[in-house]
Amino acid sequence: MFFGRINKVFRSFAFYLCLGYLVVYALCTVSIYVLASQVITKSARGYDRQDVTAESEELVELIQQSAGSNLLAEQVTMERYPPSTIFIVRVINRRGQVEYTMTWPKKIDLPDWRVYTPPQEASSLPPAGLSEYYIKPLGRHIQIQTTLLEDGRVLQVGKGSFLEVDQKSMLARMLLVFALLSTLFSVLSGIFMMVITLRPIHHITDSMSHIIETGAFETGAPPVKSLIAELDTLGRLFTIVTEKYANLIQAMRQTMDNIAHDFRTPLTRIRGAAELALNHRDLPQDVSDTLADIIEDCDSAKLQLQNLMDAREMESGFVRLNIRPFNLTKLIDEIVDLYTLVAEEKEISLKTDLPTADMLVRGDRPRLVRVFANLIDNAIKYTPQRGSVIVSFTADDTGITTCVRDTGIGIPQEELALIWQRLFRGQQAREAEKGLGLGLNIVQAIVAAHGGKVWADSTSGQGTAFYVTLPRHP
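Request: output the structure for the sequence above.
Response:
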């Protein structure tokens, strides 16, 4: 159950909507970081290049004014750079030998910085111009200005600041805050969009599920409204369609009620005429048989019409019940006794599994006789020869549940929710027996009027179990 709910969440539109927002914000954050890093790198290294070029020009002028490197050393020594700055000065003579070197901070170790084996030719000296060098231990880039002096020596000045690192660190902190805020915003945006977009859709699906499960088109569907124009139109059209179907079904039922009411009189006249004709003497045998069939068919038709009117009365809610306490065990025994002969003719085993103690319920006894007689009659009808029908009880402090279980043809799962509708008959039921499909509708209405509950459990081809729960008499 838990994993089913988790799987349902992961498959929901709301999850994908929030995930989409997160992906978009994540891609935006990464893109901003990459672009901003490139801008910071270019800007910081450009600044270092300008700075190292100015420092190099100043030191070149100082060297040219001095006879040696002492003045250069004094000048560099006097400079005080921030701890975050890397500063390197080196003078290489014509033979490639390092005459002077200085680094800031003094503890910096540059074992592989432009190490030259003293060459024999001046052409092997480093070329003049700007270059870039990466210091692995510090994870820093420095800009190097190489200048060829008039006396043939080479001056190299390198400089790198923590400006790039500092700005990237600040950018990373800012983007982290942005990522957290964007995540929160994406979740809130997803929830907001989910409410706007999914609420009317959930409303429609819930209404459709209710209609499919109960077939209650006549109740209509509450208006579906949305701030989104397309969803608002969808909700409005759905409401119009359900109202039209509800009106159509109401008109059909009203027509059936009118037919049931109007046909009673002519059927009574036909039956009366047939009885009158049957009372005449010296009728041929075939005429007598035909008149008897007419009387029987009239009685059957009147019974079906009465069922239609009873179903309509039940659905209207204006049912008068004569509620009294009675013994449900005795009632079931009486009904089973009535159907024992019918079951034996079909070679069906009709048994009960009832407690010896009295089971008292409160209800309208004649109407409940109709309920259980209908269920047992259906069980016998739709159970093949050598099958079985068992009636049993289960009870608790609040109610008594009666189970009518058979080994008949069963009901497909897709039809279980529809069998309670008036005039509905499943495919297998239509092929097995004749009828109008009113019995279970009346059963449900009578049980509901008693404050009880009725439901069915079935497997196609293996049988059906009908359960009826009624309030227990205290």
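The two ends are 37 Å apart (CA to CA).
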